[in-house]
Amino acid sequence: MSMAAEIRPGTVDERELAVIATALARSAQSFRLVDADGSPIDVPVELVVMLRAIVEQLRAGNGVSVASLHAELTTVEAAEMLGVSRPHLVKLLEQGAMPHRMVGSHRRVRLVDVLAYRDRQDEQSRRALDQLTAQAEELGLYDAS
Fold it and tell me: If you average pLDDT over every residue of the chain, what do you get?
């Protein structure tokens, strides 16, 4: 079973976010909820940290998506996540840049593989930028201080 949820900017009231942010900030390590029957439920620290991050992003005006790492994406969804065209993504898949599987005549890509590819691309971009900065400094074209 795959799970996905999305919250777009402006769909949650700013006052509600402020109340939630305050409650999460007051909780030291853990957080306790009360279910419909009045029974307390301890929320794991990792989830509290994630909830804080979600609230921070929403307060900054950013949308947030939560999905299972086992979720499979269509080529359109994967291309949107990577900021590339669908034909370019298909070319990447055919070149073996990411694993995928065929469902009939359609390709499916696991979310975890798309995120790993994006992380690799981001790291390569950072290294290339660092090299360009170092070359510019050597040539006296850039002063980092």
Answer: 85
